[in-house]
Inverse folding.
């Protein structure tokens, strides 16, 4: 790719204001700044060094465009490197080990291993070392693998090729080597490699269209602009433009303060705002190519700074696990201490009497004390389950995969599966007490349909192509609009920031192919159904756009197609001349193209037939690739296109070359299409060939006939197809719905051309006795002077336009509470009527906006322009100064009316909310809508029960008023005789509650059945969640939302759940769990939450149980060895017990356990309450498992001890059994009993699960057989001992009797609990009864 060689073409497509000469003299500021060393705020420490292109002055960055001359000698490297990895090759081992040894079990085993190496250990140090190494290695391998994946992902980004211009020389480098000041070339459909200030665009009006889905989750197109009055210079001179001064990097995606100080004698300064900056992570769309100057690179880009704002969340179950570990640790110390003192007693009083044992050791020496005490500590260290953590981690990771594989959490329409971002919170899904939910896009679909409006104090219902007066029921189309109605819908058609997007070549070809098919006959149900019977928008197909503006004279002699078949929405009004010029087939159109102004063709005799005209409309434009001179004169409107003769000569000369920016798809440009291309009939609506006969409809009746209705249906289809081709892209679905409603009524917004808005007036219902083509559509043009953007503080947006008569108007659209105060006093009566209508709309659950305008005098406008320019040039408080200018011009408005848009409910929302409430989950809806709208939605979706008493708190401004409301509400709850109460509170009152009475508000609100908070900001949402989390009741909270404004709430809650909705994916990316529809939340909580809670509880309790059984036998054995700290087990058994013998069955059942079927859990939400508050991890359950463990260890040991004491001749050959047989038989019994115990406690039995139990027992037998045939004199000698036991019939009889004796009580109790429905908590009946009585008393009387 090469840019240079044709300077005369560089400037032909750009606005030239001031020519910059080749000399570049303005350098003193830069040279002085290079000699200083200053620092950035907080975490950013950028040191000034020779050759650097970034300097700081008073915490502001100075960046020279194109870099300094010193860079020729020293090239910067890896300034744009992105790093998301945790480790490096050097730091991996120490850092990972440090993280793992923070866990109690790992650190404990490390200490035990070190002690066993230092003293005369009773068992081999390998018994502690090998399990520890295994657990550490598995965890390190998992974390290392994840870090390698992150490293590879980083390399894909860091090593991707990027085209830059340094010192006027174009080159291709890796993305990581981009430095601040570099001129970056980004082509269409490519990702921006760093934060850039836009300096050049191929768009003739200096625009650049981007999507920011990776930044804020919004998928709509956004428009950026080249800084106003920026001089146009040749590309090889762009590095001499000047110096950019901007603020230090920050996390706010929507603000940027800076200035561009131009080089040269005039030294002009241009303000830089957020609309001039392309952020890393955004993607260029509908713009062929842009050039920008890098300002923030690498980890200081806004995207990377925002990606750091995540925090780790831990499951509440870990609290109980840590409590159990502390309990076991205390028990371990107690056991070791007890055994030590018993040993000292024996050494003092027993061993001296047994002379054959020799003299006793000196128990008073410190060395002997440490030897004895630490020996017992090492002997019993297996009370701490070392493999518990790694097993829990494996269970969570694999369990999260099960959720992602769940087909009922998969939406086929959007091809979205459930996504688990945080697997260590799986069991928390079964612990939720309070659910915080957004409304728009979460409970509702965020699919807006225009329903009603209020115009000049009268209410109208929207009926697709007409309005219905609510009072007279008269249907009014655009031909019968009065002045107020025309002005109102004209305001809706121009007061917006909607862009007209384009479609891909493939989509356009598909549309053309589809249009060539025979027209489908209208269904009789469609024909007979009048438009006033349908008030819903049909789903728009947004995959096409109009690539050609074609028109034909209705009486054209050479037109073989009847003029009645031409869609009048696409007909030009400039003399009905036939458009004949070649249009590019593959180059994407910018949204600001013109469809109405076709150039006149002076040679009418050469008019082409319509089908050939369509063919010519898709001919390739010249220079469709970017030539050596970087063509910036890209044809984006009909005026810009060259004539066909030039196109024919140049079309085949150029191919196409993709940009080198990373993230782009494969090449999109095909070879130029020749004249033999199929006709693109899809560019306009082809009517049925018999439609002309319908014009002979009877004229003797005034009633609509079927023929007229059929034609009306055909006109609706044409409008719908046109809207589909226009493909409106709006910043909000409300705005898009309003523009589409205007188009259906006949005011079609067709795009903008250099800020000239084109609105085509096409009456949807024409005189059906004559062809459509005989009615000439009219186009209105408005020059957009300024756009006052919508912000969360202003709650409104405005546009200033100049009409064709030269008059200037300001149109304002926004929330009525912010627009009404701006209206003139003379409109008070109008405001009162409209406010009443808005209240009616809100009670129907509709979203409302107020519309106003006024004419601006030239003096007011000039004052506004000068004050706004002054505000934009200020580097301090720019936002506040701009808003002051906006507020001054947005005054004394004339109210036009209000709109009402419906946001349809999500599928099965009511069933989901009612089920969750039945499951004991209290639901709080936090929304930015007004109280009336939110209340209606809450009632219709089941959030507030119909019979609940509703208490509304509005506009409380002080603590005293709020406390009065709270006291009244609390009395209602106490004396309400069990009736449900619902609380509704607005943002103003909630601000007082959060600031002055947080505890009182929290304590009262949590007693309500449902809470609805309205008019909240994103910050208030997170503050409400934090307030509930601070309660002493330890509520487990979850937050669900779909938009970027819900991220703070989602991250604040214990569990964040994101909806992959229409507002984008940022909420889904920041959430712990994400899926496509709100109704899937029911299955996620009631099924997966229940299962994961039960599974983890069983896993944790079983791990402590099996280790207590294991070590309990060791404890009992010490009483029969004079407390000599001898081990009854061989070191092999100590090493493999937790790793192989008992790990597989519990892991398998922890992944598959199902106490109830999925259908049962979905149909009985009350079962969810059985596991909330981690009930199965409370002390009664733990102590019950502990008692079973103690019983099993006593039964196993003393049963075998009795056999060996009574008669130890148990081998087939009549030999007596050795000590090694005693220990091996004990271990064999333990492995069988603990594996059968987990089988007995399991509810969901499968062949695979039973196979894991059998395999675990066989694993013990096989490893022991192999071990005992090898004569190793390493630890205890069990040579051939196990083989003798296997051949002994009495041994097998003992195993069977031991199993029955140990598990019969377990089985009996389990059957009794089922038969008599006895709860496990009944073992502590008194304590539970007291707690329940106390809670009841407090909730009733206090």
């Amino acid at each position: 790719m090469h840019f240079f060689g044709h300077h005369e073409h560089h400037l032909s497509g750009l606005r030239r204001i001031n020519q910059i000469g080749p000399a570049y003299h303005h350098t003193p500021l830069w040279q002085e700044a290079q000699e200083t060393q200053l620092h950035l705020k907080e975490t950013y420490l950028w040191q000034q060094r020779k050759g650097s292109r970034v300097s700081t002055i008073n915490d502001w960055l100075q960046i020279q465009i194109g870099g300094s001359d010193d860079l020729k000698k020293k090239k910067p490297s890896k300034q744009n490197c992105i790093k998301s990895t945790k480790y490096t090759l050097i730091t991996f081992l120490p850092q990972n080990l440090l993280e793992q040894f923070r866990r109690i079990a790992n650190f404990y085993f490390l200490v035990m291993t070190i002690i066993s190496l230092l003293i005369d250990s009773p068992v081999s140090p390998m018994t502690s070392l090998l399990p520890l190494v295994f657990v550490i290695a598995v965890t390190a391998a998992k974390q290392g693998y994840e870090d390698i994946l992150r490293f590879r992902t980083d390399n894909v980004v860091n090593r991707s090729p990027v085209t830059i211009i340094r010192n006027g020389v174009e080159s291709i480098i890796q993305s990581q080597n981009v430095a601040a000041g570099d001129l970056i070339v980004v082509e269409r459909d490519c990702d921006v490699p760093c934060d850039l200030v836009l300096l050049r665009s191929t768009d003739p009006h200096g625009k650049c269209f981007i999507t920011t889905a990776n930044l804020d989750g919004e998928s709509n197109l956004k428009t950026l602009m080249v800084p106003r009055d920026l001089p146009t210079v040749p590309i090889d001179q762009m590095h001499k433009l000047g110096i950019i001064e901007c603020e230090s990097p920050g996390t706010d995606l929507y603000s940027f303060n800076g200035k561009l100080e131009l080089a040269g004698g005039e030294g002009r300064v241009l303000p830089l705002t957020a609309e001039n900056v392309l952020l890393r992570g955004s993607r260029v769309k509908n713009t062929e190519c842009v050039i920008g100057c890098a300002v923030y690179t690498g980890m200081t880009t806004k995207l990377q700074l925002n990606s750091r704002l995540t925090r780790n969340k831990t499951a509440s179950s870990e609290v109980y696990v840590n409590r159990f570990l502390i309990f076991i640790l205390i028990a371990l110390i107690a056991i070791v201490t007890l055994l030590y003192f018993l040993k000292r007693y024996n050494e003092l009083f027993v061993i001296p009497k047994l002379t054959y044992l020799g003299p006793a050791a000196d128990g008073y020496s410190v060395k002997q004390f440490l030897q004895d005490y630490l020996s017992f500590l090492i002997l019993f260290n297996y009370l701490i389950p070392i493999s518990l953590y790694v097993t829990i981690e494996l269970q969570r990771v694999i369990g999260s995969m099960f959720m992602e594989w769940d087909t009922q959490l998969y939406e086929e329409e959007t091809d979205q599966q459930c996504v688990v971002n945080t697997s260590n919170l799986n069991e928390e899904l079964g612990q939720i007490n309070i659910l915080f939910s957004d409304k728009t896009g979460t409970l509702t679909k965020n699919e807006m349909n225009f329903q009603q409006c209020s115009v000049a104090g009268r209410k109208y219902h929207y009926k697709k192509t007409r309005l219905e007066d609510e009072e007279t029921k008269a249907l009014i189309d655009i031909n019968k609009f009065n002045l107020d109605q025309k002005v109102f819908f004209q305001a809706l058609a121009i007061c917006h920031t909607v862009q007209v997007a384009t479609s891909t070549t493939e989509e356009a070809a598909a549309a053309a192919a589809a249009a060539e098919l025979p027209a489908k006959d209208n269904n009789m149900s469609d024909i007979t159904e009048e438009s006033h019977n349908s008030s819903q928008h049909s789903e728009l197909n947004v995959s096409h756009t109009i690539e050609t503006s074609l028109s034909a004279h209705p009486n054209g002699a050479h037109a073989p197609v009847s003029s009645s078949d031409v869609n009048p929405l696409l007909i030009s009004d400039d003399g009905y001349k036939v458009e004949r010029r070649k249009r590019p087939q593959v180059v994407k159109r910018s949204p600001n193209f013109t469809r109405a102004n076709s150039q006149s063709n002076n040679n009418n005799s050469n008019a082409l037939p319509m089908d050939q005209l369509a063919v010519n409309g898709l001919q390739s434009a010249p220079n469709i690739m970017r030539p050596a001179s970087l063509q910036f004169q890209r044809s984006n409107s009909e005026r810009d296109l060259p004539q066909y003769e030039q196109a024919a000569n140049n079309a085949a000369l150029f191919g196409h070359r993709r940009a080198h920016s990373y993230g782009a798809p494969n090449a999109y440009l095909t070879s130029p299409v020749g004249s033999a291309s199929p006709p693109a009939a899809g560019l306009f609506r082809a009517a049925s060939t018999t439609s002309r006969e319908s014009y002979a409809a009877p004229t003797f009746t005034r009633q609509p006939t079927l023929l007229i209705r059929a034609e009306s249906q055909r006109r609706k289809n044409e409008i719908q197809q046109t809207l589909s081709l226009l493909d409106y892209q709006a910043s909000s679905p409300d705005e898009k719905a309003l523009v589409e409603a205007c188009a259906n009524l006949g005011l079609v917004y067709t795009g903008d051309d250099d800020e000239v808005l084109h609105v085509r007036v096409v009456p949807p219902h024409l005189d059906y006795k004559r062809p459509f083509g005989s009615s000439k559509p009219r186009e209105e043009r408005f020059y957009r002077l300024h756009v006052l953007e919508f912000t969360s503080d202003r709650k409104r947006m405005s546009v200033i336009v100049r009409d064709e008569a030269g008059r200037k108007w300001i149109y304002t659209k926004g929330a009525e509470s912010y627009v009404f105060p701006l209206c003139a006093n003379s409109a008070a009566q109008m405001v009162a009527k409209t406010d009443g209508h808005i209240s009616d709309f809100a009670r129907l659950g509709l979203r409302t906006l107020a519309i106003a305008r006024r004419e601006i005098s030239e003096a007011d406008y000039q004052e506004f322009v000068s004050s706004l320019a002054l505000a934009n040039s200020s580097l301090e408080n720019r936002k506040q100064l701009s808003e002051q200018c906006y507020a001054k011009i947005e005054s004394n408005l004339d109210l036009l009316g209000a709109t009402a848009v419906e946001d349809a409910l999500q599928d099965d929302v009511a069933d989901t909310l009612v089920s969750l409430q039945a499951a004991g989950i209290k639901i709080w809806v936090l929304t930015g809508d007004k109280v009336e709208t939110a209340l209606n939605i809450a009632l219709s979706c089941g959030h507030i029960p119909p019979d609940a008493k509703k208490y509304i708190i509005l506009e409380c401004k002080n603590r005293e008023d709020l406390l009065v409301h709270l006291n009244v509400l609390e009395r209602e709850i106490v004396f309400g005789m069990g009736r449900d109460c619902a609380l509704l509170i607005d943002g103003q009152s909630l601000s007082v509650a959060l600031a002055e009475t947080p505890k009182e508000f929290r304590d009262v609100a949590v007693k309500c059945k449902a809470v609805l908070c309205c008019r909240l900001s994103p910050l208030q949402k997170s503050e409400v969640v934090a307030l509930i989390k601070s309660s002493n009741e330890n509520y487990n909270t979850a937050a669900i939302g779909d938009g970027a404004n819900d991220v703070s709430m989602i991250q604040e809650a214990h569990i964040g759940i994101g909806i992959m909705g229409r507002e984008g994916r940022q909420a889904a990316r920041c959430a712990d769990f994400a899926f496509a529809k709100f109704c899937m939340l029911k299955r996620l909580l009631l099924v997966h939450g229940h299962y994961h809670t039960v599974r983890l509880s069983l896993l944790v309790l079983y791990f402590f149980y099996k280790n207590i059984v294991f070590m309990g036998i060791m404890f009992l054995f010490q009483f029969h060895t004079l407390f000599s700290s001898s081990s009854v087990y061989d070191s092999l058994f100590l090493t493999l017990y937790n790793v192989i013998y008992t790990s597989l069955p519990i892991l398998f059942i922890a992944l598959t356990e199902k106490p109830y079927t999925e259908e049962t859990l979905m149909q009985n939400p009350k079962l969810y309450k059985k596991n909330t508050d981690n009930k199965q991890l409370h002390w009664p359950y733990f102590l019950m498992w502990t008692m079973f463990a103690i019983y099993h260890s006593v039964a196993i040991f003393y049963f075998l001890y009795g056999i060996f004491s009574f008669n130890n001749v148990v081998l087939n050959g009549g030999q007596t059994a050795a000590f090694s047989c005693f220990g091996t038989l004990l271990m064999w019994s333990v492995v069988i009993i603990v594996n059968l115990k987990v089988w007995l406690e399991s509810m969901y039995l499968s062949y695979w699960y039973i196979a894991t139990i059998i395999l675990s027992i066989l694993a013990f037998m096989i490893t022991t057989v192999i071990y005992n045939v090898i004569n190793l004199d390493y630890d205890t000698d069990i040579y051939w001992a196990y083989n003798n036991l296997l051949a002994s019939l009495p041994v097998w009889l003992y195993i069977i009797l031991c199993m029955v004796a140990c598990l019969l009580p377990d089985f009996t109790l389990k059957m009794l609990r089922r038969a008599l429905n006895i709860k496990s908590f009944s073992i502590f009946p008194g304590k539970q009864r007291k707690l329940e009585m106390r809670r009841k008393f407090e909730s009733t009387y206090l």
Remarks:
- Residues 1-53, 503-705, 766-775, 1321-1327 have pLDDT under 50 and may be disordered.
- The first helix runs from residue 7 to 10.
